[in-house]
């Protein structure tokens, strides 16, 4: 048997380590399309009334109760985002229930719009839409947002740096940032990182255990349904046909897992929401989303270019093959005649 | 490569057109990729780069991401061209050899102490090591980058662990590449290395320099 040299041992160890690492981290399962039926939600806006008379809608209270243990708990003074003087700190506004914050992952918007000559009031529960192709998950620079096979889009709060890119690329600006918490505190908190992003995770743990999301279970009007996504879409379509209404969430951002059916067009709801937002103390602030019916996916443009990644190597092979052929044949493509070169070096 | 002694000019042709073309395609696309890649983090707006004249676009992910994709295609073209061209011609001068670490130490020591370096072949030992380091990182970036492009396509999702690993390795290789490029450029702080500079622009280096420092290569060129 050939004696194992130190060099061989090192080579084999590295190879085994890399192979073992890849297997154990699941790279061998890469690029699998989700095959598990996704879950979805259907909001029947003809039934939701926003729970008038309650301090906060039942779904909002249930969500807060369900997720309270995961809310951010910043300790100590929170530094601004150097070199800017600003920071996003909601820790003294934990009780807000009329917008999205790191402490409030769903809320209900209420607008009155004119439709067919009469005013119609619509209450719209809002939270993450759990998109089919979420740009937040695709574009997170640290890869810590995941589209789960079960449907929910889930942020890993342990690894999030709070850069808020997910919010910038979300057509609804859903994720909310809290400073003073998260992994960035372990590195250079004054100069790098900004906190952690918080949003609805579709009650991932509950639905994985076969339960309904907390907000669905809590709705006193039976206005919100959850279940297999295609069934929810079918139910939404049937309801829309029944009332001559409109659907939101089926096509927006390339498709989502949350479907709304409204008796009035969503263009009108969107306009009314934008008008409401403009009246807020800080109109530019996120956390009060509209309902744009033309919400396009941030990834559409780069994905349209992706074919170039097939063309580029093929072009490289042809160009190099041609150039090498010409020079080996003694052509001038590489600066002069150089026939019959052999292997050099090692 | 069309390397040969140009006795009339007192120079040696060190890099052919293909070699120089690939170097600059890879270099320029890498710079664009590094800038647009850092732009995938929310830093240009925070630290004021996007406020600099003419750089307003740098804070817009939709712009920097498209630039990143296009530059990645150029890099991929250059990398494939490089591999196919030199594999076809069976040219492996830049691959590290046994003893390169020791020779690199001796060459750098000679530069610092003004001593006599060991004779070199076409490339200095540390150039071969630098090539391997930069090429390895570029390969890691290309592979993880392609995995990231696939992940952005509709219907393709990785496990949470895979996603963190692919992204983390892409980010790590970026930082290593930046260090590699800094090291590559820092080599020219040494006066002894500067005669190599014209080679990457015109393809030619001084014959006197080759005689003094790359005697192994010169011997090969003469004996051909």
Structure description:
The complex is a heterodimer of chains A (346) and B (224). By secondary structure, chain A is an alpha+beta fold. Chain A has one domain (34-299): Alpha-Beta Plaits, CATH 3.30.70. Chain A is 30% helix and 14% strand. Chain A has ten helices and ten strands. Chain A has helices at 6-24, 58-67, 135-139, 165-169, 204-208, 214-218, 229-243, 266-278, 300-305, 308-328, and strands at 39-44, 107-115, 118-126, 145-147, 153-155, 176-178, 196-198, 224-228, 246-248, 258-262. In chain A, the strands form four sheets. Chain A has a four-stranded mixed beta sheet with strand order 8-1-10-9. In chain A, strands 2-3 form a two-stranded antiparallel sheet. In chain A, strands 4-5 form a two-stranded antiparallel sheet. Chain A is globular and about 90 Å long. Chain B has 224 residues and is mostly helical. Chain B has eight helices and three strands, in the order ββααααααβαα. A three-stranded antiparallel beta sheet of chain B has the order 1-2-3. In chain B, a hairpin with a 4-residue loop joins β1 and β2. In chain B, α3 packs across α4. The chains are: A alpha+beta (346), B mainly alpha (224). Chains A and B meet through α4, α9 and α10 of A and α2, α4 and α5 of B.
Blueprint (SSEs and pairs):
The complex is a heterodimer of chains A (346) and B (224).
Chain A: H1 6-24, E1 39-44, H2 58-67, E2 107-115, E3 118-126, H3 135-139, E4 145-147, E5 153-155, H4 165-169, E6 176-178, E7 196-198, H5 204-208, H6 214-218, E8 224-228, H7 229-243, E9 246-248, E10 258-262, H8 266-278, H9 300-305, H10 308-328
Parallel strand pairs in A: 1-10
Antiparallel strand pairs in A: 1-8, 2-3, 4-5, 6-7, 9-10
Chain B: E1 4-6, E2 11-13, H1 17-38, H2 61-88, H3 100-113, H4 125-152, H5 160-186, H6 197-202, E3 204-206, H7 207-213, H8 215-223
Antiparallel strand pairs in B: 1-2, 2-3
């Amino acid at each position: 048997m050939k004696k194992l040299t130190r060099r061989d041992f090192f080579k084999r160890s590295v190879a085994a380590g890399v192979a073992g690492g890849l297997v154990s981290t699941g790279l061998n399962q890469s690029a699998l399309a989700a095959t598990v039926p996704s879950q979805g939600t259907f909001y029947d806006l003809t039934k939701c009334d926003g729970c008038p008379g309650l301090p906060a809608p039942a779904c909002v209270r249930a969500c807060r109760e369900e997720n309270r243990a995961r809310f951010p708990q910043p300790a100590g003074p929170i530094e601004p985002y150097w070199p800017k003087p600003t920071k996003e700190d909601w820790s003294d506004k934990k009780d807000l229930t009329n917008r999205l914050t790191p402490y409030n992952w769903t809320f209900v918007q209420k607008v009155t719009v004119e439709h067919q000559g009469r005013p119609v009031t619509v209450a719209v529960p809002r939270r993450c839409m759990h998109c089919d192709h979420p740009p937040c998950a695709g574009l997170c620079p640290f890869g810590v947002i995941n589209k789960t096979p079960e449907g929910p889009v889930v942020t890993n709060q342990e690894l999030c740096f709070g850069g808020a890119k997910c919010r910038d690329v979300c057509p609804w600006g859903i994720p909310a940032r809290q400073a003073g918490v998260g992994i960035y505190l372990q590195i250079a908190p004054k100069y790098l990182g900004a906190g952690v992003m918080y949003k609805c995770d579709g009650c991932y743990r509950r639905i994985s255990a076969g339960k309904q999301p907390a907000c669905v279970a809590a709705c006193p009007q039976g206005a919100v349904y959850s279940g297999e996504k295609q069934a929810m879409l079918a139910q939404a379509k049937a309801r829309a046909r029944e009332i001559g209404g409109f659907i939101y969430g089926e096509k927006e951002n390339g498709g989502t897992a949350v479907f709304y059916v409204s008796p009035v067009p969503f263009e009108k709801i969107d306009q009314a929401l934008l008008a409401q937002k403009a009246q807020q103390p800080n109109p530019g602030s996120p956390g009060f989303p509209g309902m744009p019916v033309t919400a396009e996916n941030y990834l559409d443009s780069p994905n349209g270019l992706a074919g170039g990644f097939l063309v580029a190597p093929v072009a490289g092979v042809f160009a190099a093959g041609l150039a090498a052929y010409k020079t080996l044949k003694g052509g001038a493509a590489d600066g002069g005649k150089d026939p019959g070169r052999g292997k050099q070096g090692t | 490569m069309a390397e040969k002694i140009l006795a009339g000019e007192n120079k040696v042709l060190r890099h052919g057109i293909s070699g120089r073309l690939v170097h600059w395609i890879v270099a320029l696309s890498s710079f664009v990729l590094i800038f647009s890649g850092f732009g995938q983090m929310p830093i240009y707006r925070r630290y004021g780069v996007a406020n600099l004249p003419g750089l307003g676009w740098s804070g817009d992910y939709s712009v920097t991401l498209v630039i990143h994709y296009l530059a990645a295609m150029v890099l991929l073209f250059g990398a494939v061209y490089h591999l196919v061209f030199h594999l076809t011609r069976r040219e492996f001068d830049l691959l590290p050899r046994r003893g390169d670490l020791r020779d690199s130490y001796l060459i750098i020591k000679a530069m610092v102490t003004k001593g006599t370096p060991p004779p070199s072949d076409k490339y200095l030992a540390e150039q071969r090591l630098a090539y391997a380091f930069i090429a390895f990182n570029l390969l890691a970036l290309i592979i993880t980058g392609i995995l990231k492009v696939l992940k952005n396509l509709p219907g393709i999702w990785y496990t949470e662990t895979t996603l963190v690993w692919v992204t983390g390795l892409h980010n790590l290789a970026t930082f290593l590449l930046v260090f590699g490029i800094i090291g590559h450029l820092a080599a020219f702080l040494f006066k002894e290395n500067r005669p190599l500079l014209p080679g990457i622009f015109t393809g030619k280096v001084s014959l006197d320099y080759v005689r003094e420092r790359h005697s192994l290569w010169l011997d090969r060129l003469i004996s051909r």
